[in-house]
Write a structure and sequence with these properties.
By secondary structure, this protein is of the alpha+beta class. It folds into 2 domains: about 5-225, no CATH class; about 235-465. Helix content is about 40%, strand content about 15%. The protein has 17 helices and 14 strands. Strand 4 and strand 5 (about 85-90) form a beta hairpin. About 50% of the residues are buried.
């Protein structure tokens, strides 16, 4: 499955005003069957970021995948709205170590191809913003991953690395099959359009603009990101009813969910939680999706996670969040005076290997992060004033936001990282700087007006049944 790789530093000075493959980090190099030197780059860590051992392990595993090993199968992602490439482990199963047969027979099964493999290893996504497509930008998931580690957030944002691939190999093994398979699905109109644009661009890179958004400088490779999307899709209890349609309307619907209502309540945390649940249940669909029993502990986690999502989406001008929030079930319990947890095997109680009385909670996964960072995208967190409406926030995240704003304004280490590590356009760097300043200013104004409770500590809530708000300076040093 894996090939020995050469580790080196891919350090390139970003001096152009366009997005490009000029990035910084540790690279592994692979030779395609046509002799093209492909790269997988573990982007340099954001200054001040907190990366777990699991993060580093996942990065290393992604950058050890050889797309052309006999035990690796590549399939076009022909479901949902955007094109991509699924990378499968075929060390066992009906097509064990037979990539040609797997790609010929299993890929046309769509999502079910995973059932014919040992496992899925990763998803490869490229930028696609041509006419008729849903809009994706490969730099965006990299920003979400690294900035979530800077803020040390509770919401689960997947590890993401940069990857390039031989254009000719992507075209023959993935893009052309993707175009053919997606053409049989009438509900995959935008997905099919994406594959059509990719096939055309791979034949003539100049047909896609900006060309540097998807091709390396020498035009021999297409580039994007490798990541994974664990979790299950929330219903209206988190994603909102979406009855008002795409855009501003569904983002206002999102603010009528129990957790968001609770975040808007200018009251102590327990009162805010109870009010959020009571008011949210007035909508019949939300009431059904919530189920009969939602513990306060669940709401405490949801409030923290949603507040973090709103902050990241505001900073990165995310235009496609609502309807794309996922979860993973975990068991939580108190042991030796501390909170312990374990991933649940099922969505219902009864795993049998956790302490009696363990609470089954849903933890939020922020997986679909590829519609941010571009200046052309609509910033719905901003236009629907989500940050202005928050009355609860985490004190440490707040302090880190103020520190981030100061760094970006003074062009400090994080600004330099942002400008050189991910291949962003100058206008996109400037947008992050401006949005961060706006976000910090909004929350500082709420703080100074004494309208912000720094009490989003779900672990403390789990232990004590309430949270004593932190005393946080509105202008931390």
């Amino acid at each position: 499955m894996l090939r020995n790789t050469i580790c080196l530093v891919a350090a390139f000075a970003s001096t152009q005003a366009v997005a490009s493959d000029e990035i910084q980090g540790d690279a592994s190099v692979f030779a395609s069957p046509k002799g093209v030197a492909e790269r997988c780059v573990r982007i340099a860590q954001i200054p001040g970021g907190s990366y777990s051992n699991d993060d580093l392990k996942d990065e290393a595993e992604y950058c050890a995948i050889d797309f052309y090993a006999s035990a690796v199968g590549l399939c076009p992602k022909t479901w949902s709205t955007s094109p991509g490439m699924m990378v499968y482990d075929i060390t066992s199963g009906p097509y064990a170590n037979d990539r040609a047969a797997f790609e010929r027979n299993a890929c046309k099964e769509g999502k079910s191809a995973k059932d014919l493999a040992q496992d899925d290893l990763a998803k490869f996504k490229v930028t696609m913003n041509a006419s008729g497509t849903s809009g994706t930008y490969s730099a965006s998931p990299l920003l979400y991953y690294h900035f979530s580690r800077y803020f040390d957030m509770a919401v689960l944002v997947p590890v993401t690395v940069w990857r390039s691939m031989d254009v000719a190999m992507h075209n023959s093994e993935v893009a052309r099959p993707g175009l053919a398979i997606s053409g049989h699905n009438s509900s995959a109109r935008m997905n099919h359009a994406g594959w059509k644009h990719l096939v055309d661009a791979e034949a003539n890179p100049a047909s896609y603009s900006p060309t540097d958004d998807i091709f390396t400088a020498d035009r021999t490779q297409i580039y994007g990101i490798l990541t994974s999307s664990p979790g299950h899709r929330y219903g209206s209890e988190i994603n909102g009813t979406r009855v008002s349609g795409w855009g501003k309307g569904q983002n206002l619907d999102f603010q009528k969910t129990p957790a968001f209502i609770a975040l808007r309540e200018d009251a102590p945390l327990v009162e805010a939680i109870d009010a959020g649940l009571a008011k949210g249940r007035r909508d019949g669909q939300i009431n059904r999706d919530l189920g009969p029993d939602v513990p306060r502990e669940q709401m405490a986690y949801w409030m923290r996670e949603i507040s973090e999502i709103v902050l990241l989406d505001f900073i990165f001008s995310q235009q496609d969040r609502v309807g794309n929030i996922d979860f993973t079930p975990y068991y939580y319990w108190i042991e030796n005076g501390d909170v312990d947890h374990k991933k649940a095997k099922h969505h219902e109680p009864g795993d049998g290997d956790v302490p009696e009385g363990a609470m089954l909670l849903r933890r939020t996964n922020l997986n679909d992060n590829d519609a941010g960072a571009r200046v052309a995208y609509a910033n719905f967190a901003k236009t629907t004033q989500m940050l202005e409406k928050l009355r609860h926030f985490d004190g440490k995240v707040y302090s880190r936001l103020v520190a981030l704003d100061r760094d970006l304004q003074s062009q400090g280490p994080i600004f330099q990282w942002l400008s050189t590590s991910i291949g962003l356009k100058d206008s996109e760097v400037n947008q992050v700087v401006k949005n961060t300043a706006l976000a910090a200013g909004i929350l500082q104004e709420s703080c100074r007006a004494e309208r912000l409770w720094f009490d989003l500590n779900p672990k403390e809530f789990f232990l004590a049944g309430d949270v004593t708000p932190d005393e946080i300076s509105c202008d931390p040093a």
